[in-house]
Each structure stands twice: as C-alpha cells, then as structure tokens.
Amino acid sequence: MTIATEMMDPEIAVRRERRIARINRAGKVLAPFGLGFVVPLMKLAAGDTPSEQWADLKQMLLVPLIGILAFLAAWAFLAPKVHTSLGAIPGPAAVFQQAEVLMDDHFAERQKAEEFYARQDERNQMLIAEGYADRVKVRPYTGKPTYFDQIWTSLLTVALGFFIGTVIAVPVGIACGLSKTFEGAINPLIQLFKPVSPLAWLPIVTMVVAALYESQNDLLPKSMVISAITVTLCSIWPTIINTALGVASIDRDLVNVGKVLQLSTWTTIRKLVLPSSLPLIFTGMRLSLGVGWMVLIAAEMLAQNPGLGKFVWDEFQNGSSDSLARIIVAVITIGLIGFFLDRVMFALQTAFTYSANR
Amino acid sequence: MRHFLCSATMLCSLTFAVTAAHAEMLFPEKDELTIGFIKLTDMAPLAIAKEMHFFEDEGLYVTLEAQANWKVLLDRVITGELDGAHMLAGQPLAATIGYGTEAHIVTPFSMDLNGNAITVSNAVWDRMKENIPVGPDGKPEHPIKADALKPVVEAYKAEGKPFKMGMVFPVSTHNYELRYWLAAGGINPGYYSPGDISGQIQADALLSVTPPPQMPATMEAGTIDGYCVGEPWNQAAVFKGIGVPVVTDYDIWKNNPEKVFGLTEEFTQKYPQTTLGLTKALIRAAMWLDENDNANREEAVEILSRPEYVGADAEVIANSMTGTFEYEKGDTRPAADFNVFFRHYATYPYYSDAVWYLTQMRRWGQIAEPQEDGWYDEVARSVYLPDIYLEAARQLIDEGHATEADFPFDTDGYKPATNEFIDGVTYDGRHPNAYLESFPIGLKGDEVIDGNKIAGR
C-alpha cells in the first residue's frame, strides 16, 4: 500500500494491511453517523502513513471542528449583547450548566420516585395490618416527568406517527406508481394537503381523536395519539411521492418479463416493484421522518402534550432566568436527535440500496 | 356506607391517636387524581399538599398539571380530564349560572386572600403623580385612588385616544377589582350585555383580556396603558422599569377572596370521601403556609420556583410571598398580608364572598336581568360547600392536626358587614340589591342594558 510497509517485516505488513482493511470497513458504518473522522485516526494509530491520513483528517475533523468552534465563539461573544426580559441570552457555558442541572434533576426525581414507592408500600403494609388487604394497590409515581422522560415520550410519539404514516404512504404510493388512474385521483389531494401546517391540523385532529378515542390506556394516552396523527398527516407526503416515483420508474424490461411470466399482482409487487423502488421509498421515508420530527415539537408545544415541545413551552411560561438556557438545551437536543434519526434512516437506505441494485 | 367509613376513620384515628398519622384510613373512592393549575404563586396550597405528602396522608395520589389558560383549565374540569383545579373565584359561579361555559362547578375550599395589584405604564404614572399628595417622607400617599387617574383618562379622551387596560379573564377577580377601583374614582369601566360581551359599553377605560405572563410586554408595546394581575407580573414591571404598581387589591378591598379549588358537582357526589380527603389535605397545606407567622414561606418559595410549579426565579416569587411590595423602584413598603393562605379564616368558603362576586357580575351586566336577594343566596349555596369544609376541619381536629379555634364553626356563612373598601362603601352579603344601590356607577334595581344604553328604570 505504501512505501513504509515495503521496508517492514512482511508478516507485520500483512497483519497491518488486514487491520486497515477492517478499519475501512468500519468506516462505512461510521461515516453516515458523522463519525468518519475516526477512520484516519484509527489508521494513524495502526501506523499508516501520516501525510495521507493528515489530509483526510483535515477534511473530516479539523474543518468541521473549526466550524463548530467558530460558531461557539460567535455565540459566546454575541449572546450577552442581546438583553431580553429574562436577562441576557445565555452563552454556551450557561447552556452546558443547565444541561447538567437537567441531568441532576432526572436523578433527583428518580430518587423521589423511590421514596414515593416506599411510602406507598408502607401505607399498603398498614392497610394489610388493619385488615383491608383488598384495598392494597400500587399506583404509578405521580411526580413530574424529567427531561429524559420527555425525550423518550417524544421519540415514542414520532415513532408511532412515522409508523402509521409509512403503513399508509407506501401502499398508496405503490398504487399511484402502478396505476395512472389512481394517481390522477390522488394527486390533487396530495398537492392540496402537502403544504398544510401542523398548527392547522392540530385542532381538527384533537376534536376527531377526542370524539373517537375513548381509551384510558396508560400505554397509549390520548395526547400521544393526537400528536402522532398530526405527525402522520404532515409527514406522509414525501413517502407517497417518492414511492410513486420509484414505482413508476421501474425498468420497462422487468415489467415486460413479469407480464411474460404471467406473475400475479402480489408477486409482481413483491418480486419486481418493491426491490427496484426501495431506494426511492427510503429516500421518501427519510424525508418524512425529518419532517415528522420537526412537526412533532410544534404539535406538542401547541397542544400541551407531553414531550420535548411541552418542555419548551413550560420553560417559556416559567420565565425564570434559567429558562432561556434550558430552552437552548432543548433546541440542541432536538437538533441532535433529528440528526441521529436522519443518519439511522440514511444507514438503512444505504444498506437497502446496495442489496436492491442486484 | 359513607357513615360507616367515617366512623371507621375516627375509630382508627382514636386507636393510633398518639401518632396522629393514621388519618389515612379515609378510603377515597377515586385515589388517582389529576389536578390542574395555572402558573401563579397562589397555586401554592396544591404544591405544598403534594410536596409535604398531605395528599398521600389521605390516600390520594395526585398529579399536578400546569394548564395553558383559564379557559382550557375550566373546559378540562368539565370534561373530566382534570378532577379538580385551581380556579378564579368567579369561574365556578359564572359556570353555574351559565355565563360563558355552562356547568355545575362547586368549591369546598377557598385558596387564598389578596395577591393582585394594578399597574400603570410610566407615561400614565408621570401624569397621575401630579394629582397624588406627597407624604412627609416625600413618597406618594397610599392608597392611591383612581381619582388621580381620572384627569389622565379625561385628557386621553380629549386627545381622542382610547385609554386601555388589561385584565386576565372576563370573570376574574382582576376584572372586578380593576372595575371597582376605576368606578370608585369616577371612571366608568363599561358594561357587558348579552349581545356585547366585550364589556366596553359606555366605557371611559377600555378593558380587555390579556394573559398574565404577557401583561408587561403588552404594556411595553403600548397596546395597554395599565393592567390588573397577580404576582409576579406587577413586580416584573418594576424590575424592568416599564411601569408602576399603584395599588394592591388589599387596599381595594381588605382581605378579598381570590382563588378557589373547583370541582364538578358530579365529582363531589360520586366521590364524597375523595372530596373530603382533598379538602383536608388542602387545609393542612394552607395552615403550613401561614404557620408561625409565615415561617415556612422561604421553603414554599423554593418549592414554587421549581419548573414544574410556577418556575419563576425564587427572588421574584419571594418578593410578594414574604411580606413586602415594591411600588416604584426604591419604594418598598411592608405588605404582610399581600398573600394570605390560612389566617383570617381564609380557606373557609363564605357565601358572602360568592355573593360579592355575583353582585359585581350584576353590576357590570354579566348578569343581565335583575335578581332577588334570595337568588344570590341560592346560587352561593349551590356553589360554595362549607359543609364539606367543616367536616374536613372536624376530622383534622380529631386527628390532632388543627384546633377548634382554627375554623369558624359558628358562622352562618356570611361575614359581618364591612366597609374596608377603597371607597368606604359598606358591603353586607345578605342584602346584595341594597349594596348595588349604593354605587354611583353600575347597574342596579331593574336596570338592564338595551343596545348601548341603560334602560328599564
């Protein structure tokens, strides 16, 4: 591979080559998650030519790092210059400190939950002692959800909304792609509903869900269903459009072969349509998930449904001097999770694209 | 069944009288509850009852949930999403008589006295100041009456500018206090009529609804020239230097009732033990808040400043919770009773308090038709439930948490007539129509609003 290896003991060189090959393979998985810079670092550690790795490293680590540092510096410099009614806009240090506070809060709340269960136990024991064993009941903790609970709720909600969306959008998209008539019927609706904002959907969804969904189910509370359906309504369009596009652009030869073989519709879809349109379906899903995550925060804020959006709104209402810093923590969290979700979809897309290009 | 449970409770508490902790043998029919509140310092009894485990002592497992606004809060109590809530005293009354959303909301527990103030913008204050006598210490003499504001409002009128003020809700204490203060100074705050619910008929000062947290910003933007709101939004104007609180509601009506704990009537009938338990826990919380001359207030401030409750900075909350009030910058005066939670029988649901709210609804046309004195009493009795309160009090006494003297056991629900108002008018809850007659501004007798005019006399 390089001059350096030639001058070495061949056995060591072979081992190194193997190690570097392994690192390259790992790089394929890491790159989509924005961790590509780890590859040159590992190669350096493995003893590869520094000059070559240096170029990679500059591009993948140094330049982004400079970007981030420049942003942080600008933030730290500019933030104190803006005075709001809650005091100056917090800089990076204040935000980091609030992130720690939120973390501590989480563990303090867990501690309180334990104490709550202990007290409840004590009470239940007493009930038994008094002869009211039939009244013993264990109730869930009644304290506030912590920051991490809110993140978890938001993730579950977006997953639910995205799942409902995909289940509807992919079949509709396939039908659109296969039948010009169907597409003609659906297309105006797609064009009409695609630009509608979540803030407009929400009141309608709230009323409809309130009328139809009567469950007091703790696993699937009404508020979560409302947020999830709002997410679905706003995010299905890219999947439908991309699926239709993917299905419509299948190789004509493949379709003709299918006709010659007299495959049933179901087999055609399964064997021909799906495999060749998968890359575009995934592109659509990736766009949908991005939109969904963005919409979710707005829906939660407006409807006061549990999740990160409610966290932001509550802090805004609190108006304490820490509120802005906490909201910025939430903004960064939302960004990071959105980025991560996008990367997961991208990785899936890469995996499926590869296998679909047989 | 209910009697049996009560006596079982007493037996148990007797058996363990020494520890006094076994009040828990109350068996609530519904023990997992969600209670709504608005982020204001006077939600304190709820936060305290939860944090001090007073709810749990009654076998109640309560989740507290902040609500977006008063309308959402009321609607969610009516639909049953919330089991009960921190409410404006006018809300259960208005809902029961069908003003706004109609539903039979009741209250066994009054949450606090006082806690509001009226703030005007700096521009208005500068012009008002000329009309206010200065005391020997060089500071304006308090209480400041709306007489000082009247020339300013007239000047606005002469210039063709509307004089606008904000309050938080059409049936809020704030609306009635602001109207009372203005009218006492000869400024007509305007009437409501069934056809015009903006409340600005014949108004000298135009009042409109603004959510509490947005008051300072709305005034800063010049949309309103002043407002009436609870804390911390008056002190916030001082902190930001955008306005001056001129009068607290303590000066408008000494020890006026403020918030109540509201439930649907259906809930209290379906779950009597739960209602009783809630009332007991809230009474204990109120006692804790006022114990030993407000000794616990610092701790209460810390609890309230948590993001899940009020969430504002502790120092801002402390300002009103610990007995001082800052008018202009540097003009801090003692206000020991700015927020009263228990003393002066603050938590007892007096019929006369309910009747006062009803008189103000009638005075400003929210109750459009004239009503007999008996009607006021009847409505008050259907909304305020002192029987539940006294039963809860009796149990707390038996358990050793309170003493007989803490509660007004011998009252008939009407406070003695009082004239501790800013205009010195005497209020006797037994004679609401006579009370209405004593105001120069306001509907009285057979008067009704017809179009833009008072008619029918």
TrEMBL record, chain A:
Residues that span the membrane, as ranges: 29-47, 59-78, 151-175, 195-213, 225-250, 280-303, 324-341
Example GO BP: transmembrane transport
Domain annotation ABC transmembrane type-1: ranges: 151-345
GO cellular component annotations of the record: plasma membrane
Principal subcellular localisation of the protein: membrane
InterPro entries linked: MetI-like, MetI-like_sf
The family this protein is said to belong to: Belongs to the binding-protein-dependent transport system permease family.
Protein name: Bicarbonate transport system permease protein CmpB
From TrEMBL, chain B:
InterPro entries recorded: NrtA/CpmA_ABC-bd_dom
Signal peptide: 1-23
Top-level taxon in the UniProt lineage: Bacteria
A GO cellular-component term linked to this record: endomembrane system
Keywords, sorted A to Z: Cell inner membrane, Cell membrane, Membrane, Signal, Transport
Pfam family, one: NMT1_2
UniProt subcellular location: Endomembrane system
Cross-referenced PANTHER family: ALIPHATIC SULFONATES-BINDING PROTEIN-RELATED, BLL4572 PROTEIN
Protein name: Nitrate transport protein NrtA
